[in-house]
Structure formats: C-alpha cells, structure tokens
Amino acid sequence: MLPFLRQSFLYSLILILAVSCKTYTLTEARPVSSSEKIVENLYFSSGEDYVYKCQMDIYKNHVSGILIIKKLNETTHRVALTSDFGNKLIDFEISDDSFKLNYVLPDLDKKIVINFLKNDFQQLLKRKYQVSESFENDHAKIYLSKIENKSYYLFFSKENGLLKQIIHTKNNNEKIDFTFDAKKPIFADSLHLQHKDFKINIKLFQITETE
C-alpha cells in the first residue's frame, strides 16, 4: 500500500503543474447585510475524541484507515492515522500557525506528504473566521472570510443552522471543497474533502459520536 501512496504523491507534484485551477465564482447568491462579525466551524470543538473511518483516493489508488482527532486546547488538535490493521501511519499536533510531527512511518516521511497533510488539516480544523462579506441563497447563509490571498466561503443551512460546506480559494482559484453532513453543531457525521487542483479526495465517516 505505502509504495504506491508515495509514488502517487510524487506524481501529484508533477501533474499539478499541468492542471489549471478553476476560478471560483459565487453564483445564485445575493449580498445581504449581517451583524455577524465572526463565524465558527465547531465540528472539532469538543474535548472528546473524534474517531472516523478514513478513505483516501489518490489517482485511482485507494487507502483506508482510522483517523482520530483530539482537541488538546483552544488552539491545537492532535491527529493520528492508523491502518485498518492498527499500525500507526502518522501522528501530529496542529494549530492555525504551528505543526509538530510526533511520528511518521518512514515510507510516508516525504516533504510533499507532510505538507499535504499539514495544509489540509489546518484548513479543516480552523475554527474562527472573521466575516468580510455576507450573502444568501434559497438554502444557505453564506459568509466570506478573507485572509491575505486566501478566501473562505462558509455555507450555513437555513433549515437547521449547521455548517454544510466550506470552499477554500487562493488567488481566486478554488482549492479545496469541504462538505459536511451533520445533525449537531459540534460533530460532523461525515466529511468529504475534495481537492480541485489535483486528484486527491478524503472521506471521513463517524465511528464514535461525541455528546
């Protein structure tokens, strides 16, 4: 499993140069005034362990395992990924502006792999977003947060108020689509993370649920 995983990441580094990023445009939405100054992604805010079945698709290759996310304090989470057989693959601590690698399987100890995981999980676990603009469509309230050359569009369902989607863009190009399925604000039952500039998708399905 691990040799082709390493090879796939190396291929992605080459192929990404030939792939055109899609410019993101918010459609079928209208600007609205809003008193919201900050919105939050609360799905990983509990002190309990978040345990998911993890599926990764990388250029037609499929990897599965168990992902555990643990909130250590208000800014930092610990993330561990094991194989289906219980072998630890990677273990790290991460916040918006820090990354500490506790363990990585030698076959995965490649700069491109570490950077990929660091970037994705910093985006996924980011909690607070300062609102720059507000929009809405028939189904969602949408908040735009801008941080330098990065933008985040957060879609909150009008039906239940829960966060349904985050679109991450950089230099106006769509980078990552995070889509959540949830019944409560602190726990996502499932998550689909889809890259737009190269063929990597991550799907998480809940195993244990927090209160």
Task: Please work out how many helical segments DSSP would assign.
Answer: 2
Quaternary state reads single chain
Shape: globular
Strand ordering within the main sheet? 1-9-10-11-12-13-14-15-3-4-5-6-7
Q: Which structural category fits the helices and strands?
A: mainly beta
Cα-based radius of gyration, to the nearest Å: 17 Å
Number of E strands: 15
Beta-strand percentage? over 45%
Task: Look at the structure and give the mean pLDDT.
Answer: 87
What does this structure look like?
This protein is mainly beta and 211 residues long. The chain contains 2 helices and 15 strands. The protein has a 13-stranded antiparallel sheet. A hairpin with a 5-residue loop joins strand 11 and strand 12 (163-170). Mean pLDDT is 87; it is low at 13-20.
Can you tag this structure with a few keywords?
13-stranded antiparallel sheet, mainly beta, 211 residues, 15 strands
How is the topology of this model organized?
Layout: H1 2-15, E1 30-31, E2 38-40, E3 50-58, E4 61-71, E5 77-83, E6 88-94, E7 99-104, H2 111-125, E8 128-130, E9 133-136, E10 140-147, E11 150-157, E12 163-170, E13 173-184, E14 187-195, E15 200-208
Antiparallel strand pairs: 1-9, 2-8, 3-4, 3-15, 4-5, 5-6, 6-7, 9-10, 10-11, 11-12, 12-13, 13-14, 14-15
Concise summary:
The protein is mainly β.
